[in-house]
Amino acid sequence: MLAGQKVVVVGGSSGIGFATAELAKREGADVVIASRNAERLKAAADKIGATAIPADVSSDESVANLFRACGPVDHVVVTAAQLRSGPFKSVAMEDVRATFDGKFWGAWRCARAADIRSGGSLTLVSGFLSLRPRPGSAIVSCANGALESLTRALALELAPVRVNCVSPGIVDTPIRAAMPEAARKDMLAKTGAGLPVGRVGVAEDIALQIHAFMRNGFATGSIVYLEGGGLVV
């Protein structure tokens, strides 16, 4: 359904971004993926037949160069995030600033630099900590909430480009790879058991909603929470 369209996924080398790029490629799109890690990016691009452009969302120049190289596009998806959280009283201000810069200002930079064709779409990815915060994650909650506010504002300012946001709950992606494997599996199993759907999310779940936003020309300013029912239990 995306045949002949150009899709750029910033953060497309792994996780939700990679699943989104892979699905877009299967649907016939010309896909560009971007991320900081050039080696991992190339491997991901080779796997699905996408174009790889290294980019760092914390750099104005890097983001500008990315979209200058892409030219006019139909859809942009921003999943890139560099999260460093911790207890509110003790988390380093350097980590706080880096998290907000990567998650919020990174999306802001992409939205400003991208040349999205009329009727195309920009989809941001936040996270349900915006509505269901937990101790030790205040900066991530704030960045997610700011992204959701930005979505509504840009839906007006960038029209007729459509701007939407997907807010996932607990998703089993490589972002959790730093945890010991046994602890990760135990956490995901316990979390999934407490959800109405009986499992945590996977990257493909979120990619499906991102693609729905690309295709649905009546959707803008929308925020969809995909958390397996976590907001109602």
Describe this structure in words.
The protein is of the alpha/beta class and 233 residues long. The protein contains 7 helices and 9 strands, in the order E-H-E-H-E-H-E-H-E-H-E-E-H-E-H-E. The protein has helices spanning 15-26, 38-48, 60-70, 93-113, 138-157, 181-193, 203-215; strands at 6-10, 30-34, 51-52, 73-78, 116-125, 162-168, 171-172, 201-202, 223-226. A 7-stranded parallel β-sheet has the order 3-2-1-4-5-6-9, sandwiched between helices. It has a two-stranded parallel ribbon with strand order 7-8. The longest helix has 21 residues, at 93-113. The radius of gyration is 17 Å and the shape is globular.
Which features does this protein show?
single chain, Rossmann fold, seven-stranded parallel β-sheet, two-stranded parallel ribbon, 7 helices, 18% strand, NAD(P)-bd_dom_sf, KR_dom
Number of helices: 7
Structural class: alpha/beta
> Which H/E pattern describes the elements?
EHEHEHEHEHEEHEHE
The helix content is 40-55%
**What order do the strands of the largest sheet run in, or round the barrel if closed?**
3-2-1-4-5-6-9
The geometry reads as globular
- End-to-end span in angstroms? 36 Å
Total number of domains: 1
The top-level CATH class is Alpha Beta
CATH topology: Rossmann fold
Outline the low-pLDDT stretches: none
Number of strands: 9
| Radius of gyration from CA coordinates | 17 Å
